[in-house]
Amino acid sequence: MMLPSERRKQILNYIREKKSLKIVQLSEWLGVSEMTIHRDIKPLVEEGLIIKTFGGISLNQERNEVNKQDCVYCYSPINQRLAYRLILQDQRIETTCCAHCGLLRHKQLGDEVLQAICPDFLMQTTISTTSAWFLMDTSLDLGCCQPQVLSFQHKEHASKFALGFGGTIYSFSEALHLVFNQMQSKNKGCCY
Amino acid sequence: MMLPSERRKQILNYIREKKSLKIVQLSEWLGVSEMTIHRDIKPLVEEGLIIKTFGGISLNQERNEVNKQDCVYCYSPINQRLAYRLILQDQRIETTCCAHCGLLRHKQLGDEVLQAICPDFLMQTTISTTSAWFLMDTSLDLGCCQPQVLSFQHKEHASKFALGFGGTIYSFSEALHLVFNQMQSKNKGCCY
DNA sequence: AGATAAAATCACATATTATAACAAATACAA
DNA sequence: TTGTATTTGTTATAATATGTGATTTTATCT
User: Which residues pair with residue A133 across a beta bridge?
Assistant: First the structure.
């Protein structure tokens, strides 16, 4: 016999894979009555993770998509233009609102991160964060998290940008530690 | 047996592909009675997604189109980050892929344009184009239309940007004429 | 127009699914 | 152990879906 909580996780995994399922199927597969399945999925429906249809359920694609609305680090809405994505070992993808939160989360997760990507601030091309260049302390305030971190594909672009807007250029590992240390020393919330 | 909700999705996909279908076809294909097909398509017809014809249905092209993703001037895909919008006297809104095409279209339409807006290149705030500052001939190539035009809310930002990336700053009316004249003299396509 | 065939709609019967109420089983703390 | 709370299953009832056949509407003939 399976634990109720386990069963509910199973349902979520199953529906994420199959996209749409019948109540009868779930009932047979999990070896419990249909009534129990109904009770299991009720909270999931209320949460909006799945959608109830007559006789079955279907996955709410929007709510289960990569583009989760809020930053996993600071919970502010994600601006796709600055979004920093962490691809984890278990296939999950986490998104933060900007490079600031992205770097902090990256340090937090450590080896769990398989790969991380972010957009070039100017070109909007997707780049690997480990080979990116990060510009901090510019005079331009984008209104996201502080200390603000801008990401560039080419070091040249970063330095040209710094000519007008000031700031200092850092490599990935430098930026990673710097943001972390600045947050430690200031010891206060960054976002909002 | 298929879930009702699945069947309805199938019908939408099928009609989107085939553009027009007979009720009998759907009935046979999905293994349900024609009455059921009628009941399935009723909400879709009411929503305006499909159009009912005697004996069948056809796709409502307008309602199923991908929300006008193309520039009204050069027909290239619109990058929301650079998009230039023209609000016309008859309430319509036209969108161009970037300030380049936006300015050209603006000049073309003249008094028909009530108002025009575009995002600040750096801040992504929405600004009125008439009070914006436009930067041309920078060394940064975004891969949109040439000659490339960047829009800024603050003249200061434009000039700081120009420090690193070069280029010349113009007011709205200056930019309007300049882009037009450059296109005239070169007498060639700008985009792609 | 009137005739005809095809399709749509309606009304009803039936089948499936959902919900609520209650009973049984289980888990757990005192 | 006992008492209590939670979970699960069962049953009855309500809601929804589907199919059938009668009737009405529509399109297309002459």
Answer: A152
